[in-house]
Design a protein that fits this description.
Length: 139
């Protein structure tokens, strides 16, 4: 299993981000974990010098909540789609949400950057499955 260069947690609930951070540690995933309670701040992370970002973080996973105040997950994705293809190609986005709205699931299926739509909370099994599926050398 290849560890991602970073895992970004984007959820407006600090306790959820903390719990997911603990799960990452318990799974033995050695990576940089970035936690954001505001989608705007998470998105700003990608609008620094993108050439440097490509070198510093060649692969990563974003676990993104949908229902957040201010910029929600959908708004985040609209802006994320504006990033260079080379950068987006190195990042796996998994929607991690409590939403059971079928319209959210349907909408997620139409956004190319979204690789999965999963219920909270993140588990070690789910985390390892995402890494093995999307970051393995054969992908």
């Amino acid at each position: 299993m290849k560890n991602p260069e970073f895992i970004m947690l984007v959820d407006d609930n600090d306790a959820t981000n903390y719990y997911h951070h603990v799960i990452i540690g318990e799974a033995g995933i050695e990576t940089r974990v970035l936690s954001f309670t505001y989608a705007e701040k998470a998105l700003n992370h990608f609008f620094v010098d993108q050439d440097i970002l490509l070198k510093v973080f060649p692969s990563g996973i974003i676990f993104l909540d949908i229902n957040m105040p201010g910029m929600n997950g959908w708004d985040f994705l609209d802006e994320f789609e504006k990033l260079p293809v080379e950068l987006k190609a190195k990042i796996v986005i998994i929607v991690l949400t409590t939403s059971d709205n079928p319209l959210d699931f349907e909408k997620a299926g139409k956004i190319p950057s979204i690789k999965g739509f999963m219920p909270k909370p993140l588990s070690e099994e789910t985390l390892k499955e995402v890494i093995n599926t999307y970051l393995s050398p054969t992908c």
